[in-house]
Amino acid sequence: MRSRDDGSTENVRPGEKDEVTRGPTTPPDLPAPQLARVILTIALLGYLSVTIINLAGVDHSAFSLTASLTGMLLIFLLQLRHSSPRARRAPTWQKSVTLGAQALLTYLPIAAFQSQWGAMAGFLAGSLLLLLPGRRAWFAYGAVGISMLIPPIVDRLPLREAFYLCQSTLLTGLVVYGLSRMAELVRALHDTRVELTRMAVTQERLRFARDLHDLLGYSLSAITLKSELIHRLVPTHPRRAMDEISEVLAISRQSLADVRTVASGLRGLSLEQELGSAQSLLSAADVRVRATIRLGKISQQVDTVLAAVLREAITNLLRHSRACVCDIEAVQEGGLVRLSVSNDGVDPAYRDSSPHSGSGLGNLETRLRAVSGRLSVARGADGTFQLTAEAPAHLIRGVPDVDDDIYARGSAA
After folding, report:
1. Is residue 244 part of a domain?
2. Residues 162 and 276 both lie in one domain
3. How far from 41 is each of 79, 101, 123, 360, CA to CA, in Å?
4. Which residues contact 308 (CB under 8 A, 6 or more apart)?
5. Is 199 exposed, middle or buried (0-12, 13-18, 19+ CB in 10 A)?
6. 364 CB contacts (<8 Å, ≥6 apart)?
7. How far is residue 344's CA from residue 382's CA, in Å, rounded to a whole number?
8. For residue 336, what are the β-bridge partners?
9. What's the confidence (pLDDT) of residue 299?
10. What is the CATH number of the domain that holds 342?
């Protein structure tokens, strides 16, 4: 068995329980946010090593080599900045300054190192894709790639060298762009999973509070009412008082069982059983009950929700009215189940403004929405109150409950 957020239960096939408990898991080959950032850094260092190897193959002075290493270090730091999500949220003037600095560090050394420095242009191409908007980014990216045709031609190298440098620049730009975006998306996915976990915890807290309200509110009201009745009966009708004490003990035991089932998440209610309990309780409170019941087969989920509606209606009747008559109607017509509870003895001006007045009707609306139902209330000037709940007798199989899906995904985290 497993529970749904509306309180109903359903069978779980062997082997399915663990899947529900764990929820969807992250694919094992998806890197952690820190690992994705490390992969990006290693890739950038790898491209820097290509330029270092190119420069090492040609004789240069100590000053030029020092200047080239300093330039590569500055480009590396600028690229790390451009690859971070903060860079894309930076003001336009900051983007212009850092992109301009990277462009100068990319193109000025070409005058001294010619084609050996050309590999650094791939970083600039990737930064332009990351920081510029839309078409401007792709236009600038292509312009950087085409510009790398010039150094090999000036050095009178074969055309294949010019094509290779252009192609490698464009490819490096795509790799830098893709790895930077991957690191950002992995971080976003991680943050989303954390948020889903928080939502799942919140949903479970709401379910627990809702179930406690629906179960214990009714049971404690019944215990209070019957205890007051026993207090009146003890002097004059001790035998009947003993019978009422037995009922109080039964209700207390049931309340304890209800608390345990709420904690374990497994609980189901029956509308027909609740109808019988409600009539017995109202009769003990000297409320005349007129019941009309025409029910057929109802799905367990709808049965539980409507039983919870009836419990809340009776609890409110006992707490907020001095009813003499209560009409209960539970009928099933044309695939729709309608539950109506109306009573007199309500003060039309009554409004419970206490901080602990409860949220029973709000809970019921949430439950009924989960089964495609609706709840309506009507107050009459003559002190009458009517609560009506409607829901389909049978739910379409295979339609997932949103709360259940969030809970299943979050419980694994």
Report:
1. no
2. no
3. 10, 20, 12, 55
4. 7, 214, 269, 363, 364, 367
5. middle
6. 308, 309, 312, 375, 389
7. 8
8. 333, 392
9. 87
10. 3.30.565.10
pTM above 0.85, yes or no: no
Rounded Cα distance, 51 and 107, in Å: 14
Segments forming the whole domain that contains residue 340: 1-25+269-349+357-413
CB atoms within 10 A of CB 405: 14
| 221-234 pLDDT tens trace | 777 777 887 888 88
Residue 63 carries which DSSP code?
H
* Of 382, 386, 291, the residue nearest 331 (C-alpha): 291
Tokens linked to 303: 């049965």
Q: How far apart are CA 332 and CA 394, in angstroms?
A: 11
Of the candidates 377, 387, 314, 320, which has an alpha carbon nearest to the alpha carbon of residue 347? 320
Beta strands in 334-370 (DSSP E): 336-343
H or E element at residue 353: none
pLDDT at 340 over 90: yes
Cβ distance 344 to 275 under 8 Å?
Answer: no
Beta bridge partners of 326: 289, 343
User: Which residue, 334, 350, 275, is CA-closest to 307?
Assistant: 275
Whole-angstrom distance, CA of residue 348 vs CA of residue 327: 19
Residue-level pLDDT at 329: 92
Gap between the Cα atoms of 326 and 275, Å rounded: 12
DSSP letter for 399, please. Answer: -
Strands (E), 233-360: 288-294, 325-333, 336-343
* End-to-end C-alpha distance for the chain, whole angstroms: 22
Q: For residues 7 and 42, state if they share a domain.
A: no
Tokens of 404: 């259940």
Q: Report whether 119 contacts 50 (CB < 8 A).
A: yes
Q: Alpha carbon of 281 to those of 128, 165, 266, 275, 284: distances in Å?
A: 75, 88, 25, 10, 5
pLDDT score recorded for residue 350: 56
